[in-house]
Task: structure prediction
Amino acid sequence: MGILNVTPDSFSDGGRFFAPQAAIAHALRLLDDGADLIDLGAESTRPGSRAGGAPGLAQGPAVSAEDEQARLLPVLAGILAARPAAIVSIDTYKAATAQAALAAGAEIVNDVSGLQWDPEMAGVCAAAGCGVVLMHTRGRPEEWRTQSRIDPHELLATVRTGLAASMATGLAAGIAPEAVVLDPGYGFGKRFDENYALLARQHELLALGRPLLAGVSRKSFLGRTLAPLHGGLDAVAEAREAASLAAMVAAILHGASVVRVHEAGAAAEAARIADAVLQAEAQGACPLDPSAA
Result:
């Protein structure tokens, strides 16, 4: 899944693809480099942003549904005009934007809130019969820097319970079970080391019965780990590419069926190697558990 941010303030690309023609060209480049689908978003959900709005306050999200659609719909149209067979996912938590994008040819809704921030979203997705990615998010972006840590013994249970609740909301609205993919939500309300603990046990989330999507590319927890190699400072987003590949391979080996990446070429190659390891394990050539030999 190639990431395309049509925003002026993305943490990872700083608005490089905010102009529609630049965004369309980048989407086509991602597809040429090996991306199987494009995830198109038009509102940053970086820590500290007002994505989702502020619960209990009059202040709404930083990007309205109207502005979000004005940003992404021309790009969606341009991608599909150039590549009619391209699969495009819309990264939004707003039902109105999802509905407009699905009508314009998008096939998947990637909701970082797991159907929690807009009560109309589940119904829109059910009516469209589209694919749905449900992410686990703890709190909202403006709360992440100050919220409490998760008890290490409760981390996986917290994510599993949240994903199960989102899935139950979707199924109750009429979303087909086979349309759902689950995302543990790396970086979304998890502190730095908590992401590694979650990644190490990610495969246990397969017990929920749906495929997993992992989005670890260029996340800040990777930059923090690289700090000793960068003069004690967190590695900036563009310096996290090798670390992103390493984390992506770990995610595949721990059960992810879809990986969300900023650069598709090297990621596609690394994913093939990870798949070859898993295939060999499945065939019994090199069981990861020595006791199974």
In short: The CA atoms of residues 214 and 259 lie 5 Å apart.
